[in-house]
Design brief:
2 copies of one chain form a homodimer. Chain A contains 6 helices and 2 strands. By secondary structure, the first copy, chain A, is mostly helical. In chain A, strands 1-2 form a two-stranded antiparallel ribbon.
């Protein structure tokens, strides 16, 4: 197995499952006559980020993770999505981007240095494997699970099978 | 980098951070005169699992993940913890167990078959890398993040740095 196998499929699994969860959430809102903005702006606590921002961060941690590990240009994506459909498009574009990487780009990336921003004023350099295990994955899964938790807390009928993308 | 490097440090990071979060939560309960049982039994939604069970599952996904990947005996741990201190002890025992694995036990584990239960009546066989990326990690991080979300939703003053274990 290659380092690509340890990276890209993990991101694609959860990005795909989140897209399915967004479909179920949109259907839930229609059925219950809930304005989509209510869910998109819902937080688990006032100083936490709202649902839409959690999804944008999941996309960013996947896309920027792959870019940094492969030494590619790290693109900045404006966070403009205001509907479930726009969030699904953001996820779809992220999936396309993550799929555009070739396995060979990840060869040796586990032991290459990756320098990345932590907070607004600091940088950190880690080996690729440590960047993936210690920063990229925990942040990626954190925001995906918090997004899931926001929906569950608001009564959307999804479960862990939806989170895992198991049909 | 070895498959051990892709596995054990990731589990240890979050197990360690959760132990720190439990300390902060216990201090919060004391300061606010909150009965620990209230937090330990809190859920984000009535049909979700309570906080204590989320922590037990984080421990199980780490311990059983390492056992299955290395072909070791998969131990079953009774879920008896009723206090923050007992949960911290459960985490400490899990950390000791995960640390007991040797890097060589993971050599080749990424491409070995792992057969594991999914739900009460089914089994699935995947290559070790797919088991880790597609099942073990997403479940492990999911329950850790939901535990974090329960605490944040209840006003415990922790942040993502606590989740990541960054001091």
């Amino acid at each position: 197995m290659s380092f690509y196998d340890a990276t890209v499929p993990a991101f694609l699994q959860i990005l795909g499952s989140l897209s399915g969860i967004l479909e179920k959430t949109e259907a839930h809102c229609k059925a219950k006559n809930i304005q989509p903005e209510v869910i998109l702006s819902t937080r688990l606590y006032p100083d936490m980020l709202p649902f839409a921002r959690q999804i944008q961060l999941v996309c960013d941690f996947a896309a920027k993770g792959c870019a940094r590990l492969t030494g590619s240009e790290v693109q900045s994506t404006p966070d403009t999505e205001k509907t479930f459909e726009e969030l699904r498009q953001r996820i779809a574009r992220t999936i396309d981007y993550v799929k555009s990487f070739k396995p060979a780009q990840f060869d040796g990336a586990d032991s290459r240095d990756v320098t990345f921003p932590v907070g607004p004023n600091n940088q950190l350099t880690l080996k690729g494997q440590q960047f993936l295990s210690g920063f990229s994955f925990p942040n990626f899964y954190f925001h995906a699970a918090i997004a899931h938790g926001i929906l569950r807390h608001n009564g959307v009928e999804i479960g862990k099978r939806d989170f895992l993308g198991v049909r």
